[in-house]
Amino acid sequence: MTTTLLTARPFGRALCAMITPFTEAGALDLDGAQRLADLLVSEGCDGLVLSGTTGESPTTTDAEKSALVRAVREAVGERASIVAGVGTSDTRHTVELALEAEKAGADGLLVVTPYYSRPPQDAVEAHFREIADASALPLMLYDIPGRTGTRIEPETMIRLAAHPRIVAVKDCAYDFLGTQKVLARTELAYYAGCDEHNLALYAVGAAGYVSTVANAVPRRLRSVLDAFDAGDTARAARLQQQATPLIDLMMAAGLPGTVTAKGLLGALGRPAGPVRAPLRPAGRETVDGLLAAYERLVTA
């Protein structure tokens, strides 16, 4: 998809924050990753975001990240964009990962705010500019202060939008007003990073979503955007509401989305495997609840 990216939707509309499948022994499962990627694209995903939060990037090695991009590119070809998560708390390391992702065949880079060290806004801005200057790939900035401890403030985002390779934002800031301020003053393509915001953000001008829940129900989530684009906003709202119970269980029930996504996918017989420590697998009661919500949604 490298040569067909759209200006307003540089990576498509319906993106999945794909899990990283592991074998039962805990090794990277490249065959499983290829099968899952092919399924997600066949079921309506325009793009796949690899090695993000849901992809367990803190516990995968640099070599595993590159191998994952190569394997998924082989599986999906040009049918979908591939955005590689390369963000770390170290600017030099992030640049190295960005260059490796470019070599491996990624279409874009997901770059999270440096975490733990809590840099001030001028340092945050300099960090993103250095990564954007180092690679030829377009960047999706990942604003998730609940995990990183640092916000990309709206004014910082507006300044960064002037960089020709900073083109998109994965928005997990939970600041709907701040997001609209940036949308009104830039051409940045915003992607909802919290599934409960998929329709709301799309309705005020976002490009689409980067969804963890799409690992399980890609076609159902895409149908929300399809209905909205067709002018049937009532249907779009109804479809979003129907997905809410599963979104709630996967994203807001006290467990990381990686854990719930892998629990549900494993129960459905799809590539997933275990999570890596310090995460722990979902318990039987949690998985049963996820399965029940999934069945209600797909039969609605």
TrEMBL record:
Keywords: Amino-acid biosynthesis, Cytoplasm, Diaminopimelate biosynthesis, Lyase, Lysine biosynthesis, Schiff base. Pathway: Amino-acid biosynthesis; L-lysine biosynthesis via DAP pathway; (S)-tetrahydrodipicolinate from L-aspartate: step 3/4. Its EC number is 4.3.3.7. InterPro entries: Aldolase_TIM, DapA, DapA-like, Schiff_base-form_aldolases_AS, Schiff_base-form_aldolases_CS. One of its GO terms (molecular function) is 4-hydroxy-tetrahydrodipicolinate synthase activity. Pfam families: DHDPS. It catalyses: L-aspartate 4-semialdehyde + pyruvate = (2S,4S)-4-hydroxy-2,3,4,5-tetrahydrodipicolinate + H2O + H(+). Its main location: cytoplasm. It is an enzyme of class 4 (lyase). SUPFAM superfamilies: Aldolase (SSF51569). The active site is at residues 142, 170. Pyruvate binds at residues 54, 210. The record marks 53, 116 as: Part of a proton relay during catalysis. The keyword Amino-acid biosynthesis applies. It is found in: Cytoplasm. Belongs to the DapA family. Homotetramer; dimer of dimers. HAMAP family: DapA (MF_00418). Catalyzes the condensation of (S)-aspartate-beta-semialdehyde [(S)-ASA] and pyruvate to 4-hydroxy-tetrahydrodipicolinate (HTPA). This is 4-hydroxy-tetrahydrodipicolinate synthase. The gene is dapA.
